[in-house]
Design brief:
Blueprint: E1 8-12, H1 16-27, E2 31-36, H2 40-50, H3 58-63, E3 68-71, H4 78-92, E4 101-104, H5 115-119, E5 123-130, H6 136-139, E6 147-152, H7 160-171, E7 175-178, H8 184-194, H9 196-211, H10 219-237, H11 252-265, H12 270-287, H13 292-302, E8 317-319, E9 324-334, E10 339-342, H14 344-354, E11 358-364, E12 370-375, H15 379-392, H16 400-404, H17 410-419, E13 422-428, E14 431-432, E15 439-444, E16 450-461
Parallel strand pairs: 1-2, 1-3, 3-4, 4-5, 6-7
Antiparallel strand pairs: 5-6, 8-9, 9-16, 10-15, 11-13, 11-16, 12-15, 13-14
């Protein structure tokens, strides 16, 4: 630990993290010599939080002669700030002979970005709190118990820069660890998965709960106890032992039901569910509680559509050889009742993106109540098309499907079967071979709003 009461520090970028750090250090006796902010709004907020006037610029900040500089700015402006600070430190070197310390707080950017400051005589390092700081007042207390990644510019864990970073972290009540600079991107990707994507995952879960009938205003509060209990299990048991749910017990039937429900109600989440499911099977194998044959069945189930078709785990799958095959998917909502969506521009862009010069593109709908066709996408023609189906396959007729299925969309199945699920269009010189008024259209014959997926597979040569 270090005696913070003798420390004078400055913050460049007093946003949420910078202000949290300033408040935490000041509460432990350190003196805030000054701070800067990029925008007038940010300056006003920081002055209110920190109770003192912001410095006009880095030149004014350096004139206060702090011994310690924290750079807490967005990654894209870090090089510019490091250059400016390095130049100012170089100019002040004749006056301030003690080598200052310059730390940046980015998890993703290399310590090398601080080389202009190092060349000006500063000791440089990265000081990244593995923590989230939604607001500075609460954030000031979040250093206690948090992990902090320390990466010095020179040397290893025993270098002067690392030693200072470790001591500073311990003075804040944090848990420092050494992070090699060449592992920084991998480390930051792990942090993004653990924190940012966790929020995304819970948001998607919230939307599914609402689709399932939970009240929109209460859904989050209703499933947060489950999330909190899961985190507690993770904390007390570790990531392998904490796993529960259908995959942990080898329940293929339930997983199959999940896939069917998602395909019908939220097809855009199918790739996410499948990728996470396949990753979860690694934990199941490690635990050893499920028979290998069952794990193989689950792997096959998660790697395929519910109707047995091969499923791509990425947005676009490319197979190269004499002929190249590129598979993409389009996701969109439809209103039902012969609602028509013009896919022409989207398909054209996907074909162009492949870089193929000649071949065919197949537009295929993997479902039973929609169809793909070509039509002049003009209001009169679209209405004529709807009127045609109302005459030849009327919703008012009796359908045996409606006798056994409460969705009452028998007419939608018949209409889709008549029109067909797919369309093949040739292309040449990278362009679709469509007629002047011919456009690729998806038609939703169902009787309600749906989320739809259309597969676009381009086959051709360069």
């Amino acid at each position: 630990m270090i005696d913070l009461t003798t420390s004078q520090f400055a913050v460049i970028g007093a946003g949420r993290l910078g202000s949290s750090l300033a408040l935490a250090l000041r509460s432990r006796g350190a003196h805030l010599a000054g701070f800067t902010c990029r925008s007038p709004e940010g300056r006003s907020r920081a002055e209110a939080r920190l109770g003192q006037r912001a410095s006009a610029d880095i030149h004014e900040l350096v004139s206060c002669s702090p011994h310690l500089y924290f750079i807490a700015v967005p990654d894209d402006v870090l090089p510019e700030v490091a250059d400016e600070l390095g130049a100012e430190l170089g100019s002040a070197r004749a006056v301030n002979r003690d080598a200052p310390l310059v730390l940046h707080t980015s998890g993703a950017t290399s310590v090398a970005v601080l080389s202009p400051c190092e060349q000006a005589g500063a000791v440089t390092l990265v000081f990244h709190p593995l923590q989230t700081f939604p607001d500075p007042v609460g954030g000031a207390n979040r250093f206690a118990g948090a992990a902090i990644a320390v990466t010095p510019a020179c040397g290893g864990v025993d270098s002067p820069g690392a030693s200072f970073g470790f001591a500073l972290a311990r003075s804040l009540g944090a848990r420092p660890f050494f992070l090699s600079d060449d592992k920084r991107s991998l480390y930051h990707a792990a942090a993004t998965l653990a924190c940012n994507y966790f929020v995304t995952l819970e948001h998607q879960a919230e939307q599914l709960f609402i689709k399932a009938g939970l009240d929109e205003q209460e859904a989050l509060a209703l499933f947060l106890p489950l999330v909190n209990a899961t985190l507690e299990n993770l904390r007390s048991q570790g990531s392998v032992a904490a796993l529960t749910g259908p995959l942990s017990r080898g329940d293929a039937h339930t997983v199959d039901q999940h896939l069917t429900a998602l395909a019908n109600e939220a097809p855009r989440l199918l790739p996410l569910y499948r990728v996470l499911g396949l990753a979860t099977l690694d934990l199941v194998r490690t635990r050893g509680d499920v028979d290998p044959s069952v794990i193989a069945e689950l792997t096959d189930l998660l790697g395929r559509h519910t109707d047995g078709e091969d499923f791509s785990m990425t947005a676009a799958t490319t197979v190269s050889g004499p002929v190249t095959v590129v598979t993409d998917r389009l996701y969109f909502e439809t209103q039902g009742n012969a609602d028509m969506v013009n896919l022409t521009d989207k398909v054209r862009r996907l074909v162009e993106a492949t870089g193929l010069q000649a071949g065919t593109v197949t537009v295929f709908f993997p479902g039973a109540t929609g169809a793909v066709t070509t039509l002049e996408f003009e209001p009169g023609v679209v209405q004529d098309f709807r009127n045609l189906f109302d005459r030849i396959i009327s919703p008012a007729e009796r359908y045996e499907h409606n006798v056994t299925h409460p969705d009452l969309n028998g007419h939608a199945h018949v209409r889709a079967g008549l029109l067909g699920p797919s369309l093949v269009v040739p292309f040449d010189d990278g362009g679709l071979c469509l007629g002047r008024w011919q456009e690729i259209c998806f038609v939703c014959f169902d009787n309600r709003l749906r989320e739809r997926t259309v597969v676009v597979q381009t086959v051709g040569v360069r």
